[in-house]
Amino acid sequence: MLLRHTTAEIVERRALTVNPAKTCQPIGAMYAALGINRCLPHSHGSQGCCAYHRSALTRHYKEPVMAATSSFTEGASVFGGQANLLQAIQNIFAVYEPDVIAVHTTCLSETIGDDIPQIISKAREEKKIPPGKYVIHANTPSYSGSHVTGFANMVRAMVDYFAGPPDARTTAINLIPGWVEPADMREIKRLAGVLGVRAILFPDTSDVLDAPQTGKHEFYPKGGTTVAALRATAASQATLALGPTASEAAARQLETKFHVPARVLELPIGLRATDRFVNALRKVAHVKVPAEIADERGRLVDMITDMQQYFYGKRVALWGDPDQLVALVEFLTDLDMRPVYVVSGTPGKRFEDRVAAALAGRVPEAKVRQGAAADMFLMHQWIKQQPVDLLIGNTYGKYISRDENIPFVRHGFPILDRVGHSYFPTVGYLGGMRLLEMILNVLLDHKDRSSPEESFELVM
Amino acid sequence: MFDILEARKPQVHEKGAEPFAMVCEKQSLAGAVSQRACVFCGSRVVLYPIADAVHLVHGPVGCAAYTWDIRGALSSGPELHRMSFSTDLRERDVIYGGEKKLYASLVELIDRHRPNAAFVYSTCIVGLIGDDVAAVCRRVEAEKGIPVLPIHCEGFRGTKKDGYRAACDGLARLVGTGATDAIGPRSLNILGDFNLAGETWMIRDYYERMGVEVVATITGDGRVDAIRRAHGAKLNVVQCSGSMIYLARSMQEKYGIPFLRVSYFGLEDMSRALYDVADHFGDAALRRRAREVVRDEVAAILPELRRYRQALEGRRAAVYTGGAFKAFSLVRSLRTLGMRTVLVGSQTGNREDYELLRELCDEGTVLVDDANPLELSRFLQEKRADLLIGGVKERPIAYKMGIGFCDHNHERKIALAGFQGMLNFAREVYCSVMSPVWKLCRGKRPLECGDSSPLSR
Which of A1, A101, B261, B417 gets the most CB atoms within 10 Å of its CB? Predict the structure, then answer.
């Protein structure tokens, strides 16, 4: 047993994190920046950070992930990273020719105290930024928040640097999808399109991290939100921010600076969350919901109806990022399942309240933990004390799944050992159907494999 | 050659062009999309396979998260090394220091898991906030009675190579603390193999069949107690010279143990390793048994190897590795398969390495140090490569270009070392280079041209 070192007995931990259910801010900023058209993310820190983030994103997306680094040395860590960043900006525009460089900081450059806006100004003064090109930045100290915070900070930076000045109000609606897969971003755009809504989606990693094979390595694949589109967000009718942890900051910024009304929703994962999303979109864009979408919804409900007996009462353990977890908890509870353990390493204020709202008192035995020492070790200890029927989370659950023989659906970031997540959405009604299919498959496969011969059934 | 940045030119060389003045071992340019990693990464990969120790990463959570079980370094016993332990430093720790958290974490870990040693990795900000990691380690060592070894591998303090050195410094403190009685005169340590996909086990088996005793495997399938008595071995055999040469040198100085540099990749290098060891001991029986091992192993794989060679003859390969030492073996192995190496590069090669590579390669082969993906993909295209050998970040680049790929790094899933490994390597190269998918993606305008298949009527 791989996790034989996990003890069932739980001792309250003060200092140590074991098998984390989070990672650090910069990788989130890097992922978000890849959702800008022709943007090169830039890691202002040691070389290793950039290499690790690129490797982790490559393992998850199976795509080339390009990002540059300031390559800090001993000298930079004593005298500050200004010289490195200035040189980096010059080199990047000369060699890689992006439209945008999106700088994020690291624990190193934050602790040194590099003032990035000042360095960017200096680069502009020294004419290191060619006309029509941009350098933006987000502060992403690795010692606060988590990867999701880093994502949120970079999305906000897109507003800070690009939005406005507002021209006359347009009919467009801003959609901030949160940290979801390229497939989810594509699906959100599709839904908006079917509703007849003109949407500006940002960031948008579809056609960047799910790029087709063409026989060429495109350094900048065709996808990503353009600078022009980001600029126009200031003039939109409204903003829908999907997932408060990842998307609210940017939406509020647009509201404060340009009076674009913001609505913050949970991620549209599952039936009711998608209903709320469609309804919100209908209202802000003044459109009617076409039959096509009502039918999609009907098919999801039909699937739930058909298979309800298999969901009833199943105990589920989930881990990952707050926005995903809240939406999943609501969906699972609607399926009559029991999300009993919910763990997120991401700290933050409202998570436990949001989960409680999603549960609506239906699963009183649920345990929810976030922040320090909310990790996969704790999750496993809970499971050892009282087992569950299903695991839902990123790849790091595979050890528990194997050791405890529990069916496992991969969802979230990172998924290092399967494909599909970047191509098939889990948002929207279609995404709900895919989630159901995945959940049912693992539950029924498990039943098939573990039931004795006499009760092994052909028809289920 | 296409345009490359002026400052990068000294790090690229095409064989045939004179003079040869390859610049390497240089800090990457700021702003490079470098494929390189950091000092911490070097230490972490080298020590990670020691399976009965706890490996505590002292810093914010990322460094522990990204290195959680990413390398298939197999253990025949404990699996402690596959867990991820972090002090998860937060903002207040950065302000007030992380020593208390480090102490509490170590005590808790040691009490719960009863490891035989603990390694503490200092990450970037630990160097800045001034935690006295060594003092905390000494205190815990005294209290708990196991070696607690600080590894000074702050990411910015150099390159991955400096991380190897820091790891070797830690290992050197372990070596020499165990009993060496019962170690025979024909004995060695295997240094610099990490038991990816069980490779150390294969190598160990060859040596044992020759009649040589293996004292410690450092660090593949590594155990603290074996490392502690490693100074009792009569020879160190060092692979992947980048990572473990420092330990070999320090053991030579301190204990007078000689070392041999070997590679276990490819038939030539693998056989030479066994012969060199036999020669070192100057024992006719050892030499005879080495010949038997080579003969038996080669005979077992040759027929299948020939079949792959037939298909691969004349194909063109590009090699981009971490250390340059591996590149030598790969160029030779590819030649065994009838393939020509048209591009070869590394993240951390030194001048001597590139000199050797240049001798080894054909005219026109491009040598490149610390390449970026833009250069890589342009060279792949210009040199019309059919195969790229590299690591995780390079794989999708090759696939996007419609080129076969072989991971010769962390993510190899099958053993590529040893004789069996050569066959596995050939099979992997064959299946990728000859995959039918390349025909599907190279096809001209499949959506517009008529399909002449008998399947459409």
Answer: B417
Per-residue b or e along A50-63, where b marks 16 or more CB atoms closer than 10 Å to that residue's CB: bbbbbbbbbbbbeb
What count of Cα atoms within 13 Å lies in the side-chain half-sphere of residue B455? 2
- From B413's Cα to the closest Cα of chain A, the distance in A is 12
Right CATH number for B313-412 from 3.40.50.1980, 3.40.50.1100, 3.90.1640.10, 3.90.180.10? 3.40.50.1980
Q: Residues A253, A338: one domain? A: no
**In angstroms, what separates the C-alpha of A336 from chain B's closest C-alpha?**
34
| DSSP per position, B91-114 | HHHHHH-SHHHHHHHHHHHHHHH-
Is the distance from CB of A19 to CB of A396 less than 8 angstroms? yes
Whole-number percent of chain A with pLDDT over 90 = 93
- In this complex, do B441 and A213 lie within 8 Å of one another by their Cβ atoms? yes
Complex ipTM over 0.90: yes
User: How far apart are the CA of A271 and the nearest CA of chain B, in angstroms?
Assistant: 33
Going by the DSSP 8-state scheme, the letter that residue B50 receives in this structure is B
A2 band by pLDDT with thresholds 50, 70 and 90: low
Q: Among partner residues A27, A96, A377, which is closest to B33 by beta-carbon distance?
A: A96
Contact A144 B91 (CB under 8 A): yes
> What pLDDT sits at residue B383?
94
| Separation CA B145–CA B80 (nearest Å) | 19
A17, β-bridge pairs: B86
First to last CA, chain B: 48
pLDDT score of A388 more than 90: yes
Q: What per-residue confidence (pLDDT) applies to B37?
A: 86
Contacts of A179 (CB under 8 A, 6+ apart): A28, A31, A32, A147, A148, A151, A243, A246, A321, A323, A413
pLDDT of residue B29: 78
Q: In this predicted model, what pLDDT tens digit does every residue of B288-347 receive, in sequence order?
A: 999 999 999 999 999 999 999 999 999 999 999 887 888 989 999 999 999 999 999 988
For the cut 80, the answer to whether the pLDDT of residue B241 exceeds it is: no
User: For residue B319, what are its two tokens?
Assistant: 């090699």
Q: DSSP assignment, residue A20? A: B
Asked if B354 contacts B10 with a C-beta cutoff of 8 angstroms, the reply is no
Are residues A141 and B28, on separate chains, in Cβ contact within 8 Å? Answer: no
- The pLDDT of A2-10, averaged and rounded, is 77
pLDDT at B14 over 90: no
Chain B interface includes A55 (CB < 8 A): yes
Nearest-CB residue to B30 (from A19, A70, A112): A70
Count of the separate structural domains present in chain A: 3
Domain region containing A112:
25-161
Select the more confidently predicted residue: A175 or A72.
Answer: A175
Interface of A with B in 153-182 (CB under 8 A): none
